Amino acid sequence: MARNVAIDILKLCLSLLVVMLHCSLFKDVNASLYYVTVNGICRIAVPVFLVITGYYFFYVNDFKKLIKWGKRLLILYLVWMILYSSFWFSSSLAENIKNLFWGYFVLWYLIGTFFGGLLVYWLRNYSLAFQIGLVALCFLTGYTIQIIGNLHVYPRGIDQLLNESRNYRNFLMVCFPFMMTGFWINKYKINHKININIYLIACLFLLLIFESFTHYYFISHKESLDLLAALLLVAPAIFIFTLKKDIRSHSKNIAALSTAIYLIHPMIMFEVAKKFDANNTIIFTTVVLSASITLGYLLIFLNKRIKYLL
């Protein structure tokens, strides 16, 4: 069946943004530029990925399909947790269980999507009003935890708890809200009912940048900013805009490369940091991006022979 390659190209661009974020692009160039790039523009990646996933999750409409979807995702997650085991495995059983549940580094997205998908499936036939209310509650809870944590208004123990990213960047407060949004776009055919043009996208990006700058100047210029309220508008708008391009192809290579880059780049980043000056973020990011794309193609080749790598 032919694919919409426009979506695959979008996913590839998003995976590159994730690499830029983790390489702390522009950190050594300018503090405000770094912040608005890493804690602003680059933060669109995960929410848009989730909206895309939620849109196609609409077709997981019976238990048999849910089992198939969940099985594939869990196998992919476990394969990469094993590949990254040298980075997270310890002598502490409790710590290992914790890491398996939450996911190491970027792998939180896979396990978060799994649980987020289960929640979307469970709630798929509930009223729209209930779904909207729950999505708003979940996102607002995560957003509030993040902001209060970044303000550092509580004693050290509580403050550390609030600033633990797992407590607000998780399946309930991130994956579920954005996956549900993608689900709505498909269920209610929102992409056919509204017109998203490049000028609106530009305005929404400016809103995102404004929110990032506001956080930088008035809340904290040191803490990361995973959740931005503007993403609730920016992420679905970018997806709908891209969805309407409808460029057809039978090839899955671009989508596979996107997944490969996302999964392999932390390993590359750690190795490159041993040989290159990570403090020169432009060169460091360029090298990591180039190596991730190159090895990403190798992973695509290997995946044709060893399933569940991508």
How much beta, percentage-wise?
under 5%
Q: Which ranges are low-confidence, i.e. pLDDT below 50, for 5 or more consecutive residues?
A: none
Total E-strand runs: 2
Which structural class matches the secondary elements?
mainly alpha
Overall 3D geometry? globular
- If you average the pLDDT, what whole number results? 95
Number of helices: 15
Main β-sheet, spatial strand arrangement: 1-2
Question: What's the alpha carbon Rg, rounded to whole Å?
Answer: 19 Å
What portion of residues is helical?
A: over 70%
What tags apply to this protein structure?
72% helix; two-stranded antiparallel ribbon; globular; single chain; 310 residues; mainly alpha; 15 helices
Written description of the protein model:
The chain is mostly helical and 310 residues long. It is 72% helix and 1% strand. The chain has helices at 5-22, 31-38, 45-57, 63-83, 85-88, 93-102, 108-123, 128-151, 156-162, 171-187, 190-193, 198-218, 231-243, 253-275, 281-303; strands at 3-4, 248-249. The longest helix is centred in the middle third of the chain and has 24 residues, at 128-151.
In short:
By secondary structure, the chain is mostly helical. The protein has helices at residues 5-22, 31-38, 45-57, 63-83, 85-88, 93-102, 108-123, 128-151, 156-162, 171-187, 190-193, 198-218, 231-243, 253-275, 281-303, and strands at 3-4, 248-249.
